[in-house]
Amino acid sequence: MKTLITALLLLVLPLGAFAQRHYAILSLVGDEMMIVQREMSTGSHNDTNNRWSVQMPDASLDRMMAFAVEDAVKRAEPNAKTTLLVSRRQAVYDAVARELKSGDTSKAFQAVRPVISTAKGATHLILVTKYRKNAMLRVEDGYVGSGFLEGIGFYMDYGMQRGPVANMIETESGMISPYAYFRVSLIDLASGKVLSEETAVGSKPKWNRVGTIGHAWTALTPQEKDERLSEVIKEETARVVPTVIANR
Predict the structure, then answer these.
(1) Between 20 and 30 A from 37 (CA), which of 23, 89, 120, 160?
(2) CB-CB contact of 87 with 128 (8 Å)
(3) Using one digit for the tens of pLDDT, what is the confidence trace for 27-47?
(4) 3-state secondary structure of 233
(5) Residue-range definition of the domain harbouring residue 219
């Protein structure tokens, strides 16, 4: 009788109902943090912003991203297994960046094969990589920003106008915003095929006090910077990851 019931269930339930995915999760966005300062420029469409690359001494950013992705996976697919991976080899970051410039994520997958070989039993790879796009920092009535942003970092504007121009002293203030610009790709490990991809351009601006132009960096304490950056990453992964892994 048990055999008969099992056979009937197989006929009624979709084949994917018994399939349990095992996701290897690899983030390659945390080798550096970018500090971008808006530079005023007249009559030019070029990106004239000042940029500083802060090399990360550990894998804290990639771990933050990987944990956020895992949390999003567990919420969307509670029965899924996960294995979190970390690579601190700069050669891996550089190789993936080169391959992604061609627009072919499958080539980037080949560059990370040695890393994911340690995820025994994994059926799929969730690969998080840097994404480059125009600066779009969210504000109440739209977006602000100039130039391009990529990866993880902070964008600063030391004197951004808010409100009417009638009283410049009262309407200008500095702004700082953590940002997370990344791509999430789902790759089938058996075939190497990219099943789906989504991009994220998250930010969480903080305005400095009115009349304090030039002090945007101090608008947030070190702890607040960490907290806001973590919030951006969690919000964006919660938004895009369920869509990415919905592909069957």
Answers:
(1) 89
(2) no
(3) 999 999 999 988 766 555 567
(4) helix
(5) 16-245
